[in-house]
Write a structure and sequence with these properties.
Elements (H helix, E strand, L loop, with lengths): L16 H4 L1 E6 L2 E6 L12 E8 L2 E6 L7 E5 L6 E8 L3 E4 L1
C-alpha cells in the first residue's frame, strides 16, 4: 500500500472492557476463550475478526465471522502453557488478556 507500518498496541482495559478483552480458561488441555465478560456483538458492522493464542511453544489463530458466537477453543500440547490471548475487533482494534 506504500504506507509505513505502525505498531498496534493491544488494549487490556478501558470503558469497553466487558466487550473486548478475551476471557480464557484451561480444562483438560483445552483453552476455552470467550471475547468479553459480556458477549461481544457479532454483527456485520461490528465483530471480532480473529482470536489468537500465544503459548510457550508457539501460536494458534482462529477466524470468526458475523453471526457466530465470539468463542473459540484451542488444544494445548502436554507441557505447553498459555502466555497471552489476543482478540481483534474490526472497529476497536487489538485486545489482550
Amino acid at each position: 500500500c506504500g504506507e509505513p507500518m505502525s505498531e498496534i498496541i493491544p488494549g487490556t482495559t478501558d470503558a469497553a472492557v466487558e466487550k473486548h478483552v478475551p476471557v480464557w480458561t484451561v480444562e483438560n488441555g483445552i483453552v476455552h476463550v470467550k471475547v468479553g465478560s459480556v458477549e461481544h456483538p457479532m454483527l456485520p458492522e461490528h465483530y471480532i475478526e480473529w482470536v489468537s493464542l500465544h503459548t510457550k511453544q508457539g501460536n494458534q489463530r482462529k477466524e470468526l465471522h458475523p453471526g457466530e458466537k465470539p468463542e473459540v477453543c484451542f488444544a494445548l500440547c502436554e507441557g505447553d502453557e498459555v502466555e497471552a490471548v489476543y482478540a481483534y475487533c474490526n472497529l476497536h482494534s487489538l485486545w489482550k488478556a
